[in-house]
Write a structure and sequence with these properties.
homodimer; about 325 residues; alpha/beta; 11 helices; 14 strands; globular
Chain lengths: ~325, ~325
Amino acid sequence: MSQTIRVAITGAAGQIGYALLFRIASGAMFGPATRVHLSLLELEAALPALEGVRMELEDCAFPLLDGVSMASDPMKAFEGADWALLVGSVPRKAGMERNDLLRINGGIFTAQGKALAAVAKKTCRVLVVGNPCNTNALIAMANAKGSLPKENFYAMTMLDQNRAIAQLARKAGVPVSQVGRVAIWGNHSSTQYPNFYDAQIGGKPLPEVIRDEAWLQGEFLATIQQRGAAIIKARGASSAASAANAVVDTVRGLTTPTPAGAWVSAAVCSDGSYGIPEGLMFGFPLTSDGKTHTIVKGLTPNEFSKGRIAATLKELVEERDAVKDLMP
Amino acid sequence: MSQTIRVAITGAAGQIGYALLFRIASGAMFGPATRVHLSLLELEAALPALEGVRMELEDCAFPLLDGVSMASDPMKAFEGADWALLVGSVPRKAGMERNDLLRINGGIFTAQGKALAAVAKKTCRVLVVGNPCNTNALIAMANAKGSLPKENFYAMTMLDQNRAIAQLARKAGVPVSQVGRVAIWGNHSSTQYPNFYDAQIGGKPLPEVIRDEAWLQGEFLATIQQRGAAIIKARGASSAASAANAVVDTVRGLTTPTPAGAWVSAAVCSDGSYGIPEGLMFGFPLTSDGKTHTIVKGLTPNEFSKGRIAATLKELVEERDAVKDLMP
């Protein structure tokens, strides 16, 4: 047990951070034989609260936790990072236009991309969770160009995948482990497309098991696209623990070989697959050999899927165009 | 993977519950080969928020999570339970006397003890986390008498043990895994005694490694006893995630064989060991064979330890006397 993975986490004192840090430190992300160091980034004003979180991490006596450091400067927090989990972002506030939101966060992710390029390990992998996560990841990737390979950047759609699997399993009356090959296409936003046509239930094509296509195209898609709002309405708080769990699932999915019949969802830098413009951060079905990911090839989206993919692509192109000047 | 453990959790919509449920559902408590059903108890008024938590659990697509049920009646929530984690309790409010606190919670744990006796499995094990946890556990145990064996009741002191291990490891400059045989004696309150005299560091007696006895008897003890308040001061919220982690550690500690050189801390029904009156819920060092616990015998507390143990015993006897009429 000699290896220590250095994990940088932004927005560490927030609700997702609080749900995430203890799971990482317990070994849930990198397994029971890998030690971790947590390098936590927060705004200066949140460092006192973060110190309380650090004390609680200490109070767990986690055998795998090598240490915890804290900083308000990404040039310190990202130093030597093997993984950077970019959880923190500025949420949309009342009266804020979509372009304002893109540009405010664009500033943060420009600085973080430059800092990653300057001080992280050259093999560092970066998962962006803070929304709008696809375009935030695009900006970070562009600003780290020449130092970190573009293949090392991801934006999170795994929460959507897990939500889709759960709803499909419930509809089919099977355990979640029976549902495979579900993936989220496009943007992690309300235009996302949780493609069910290529999914399998118990190894069979899903459309042969769930024959209610109206439900799949209608209520199912709407439920997944609007699930975040439904949680906020019920809990009075956003979905922190399930988002944190999806971070764990994404990193595990990208660092362990993908089991047969399963896919990992994440937005990655498009290689032109399925007509998605090269260089755009777009959600695809992925598989992993434990070290690098591969976009699943050879699928043949039907007309319905093509329409949905075109809609989410249009949104992502607009987002990219709104922040073009932030990318060198 | 045929076994499903039914775990009832009270106060499930609270902060500790939110930090705990996802770790149980992920397999952290009962291991990767055991399925779980979570049966959640909350006040009627908190059921809508709890529904949001249930949705988030669903949204994790945990392969080990068989199901989640919710109730406001302990007679429903405890039905068929293999484990009951009694997390919910009424916190002390401004102007509330200690006896008021004991009696208000006494009412809750009387009802829960009776419900456990009526509907839980006869082998159900019960861990009380809600404070004052020793006396709450005593009341639940007394009210479940004749149905559940007294050996199946525990009150949580594992957070204190973990805190003590972390502080001792830091002082000695060693990893936490090097610190063994630390245990919390007595009440989970400011009178608790985290006994360091029997502890070992790297297999050696701790007093031979940490030679600063003034620090051990002074600052160390005070730090552990007052750690909860220090966390609240820093975070602006109580220590939910580290408490939840201690719940995981306690149940794992009681359901897996204790490694050599390690102890598990919990308050259990005294068998008269070390002069502690039989029947009192008192924190002891324990070991487990994976099925039942044993109080560690044959230790010889020195005068300092004897004084500390007497002080925390005095408090627990007073607590018991204040709620005597609640125990049949």
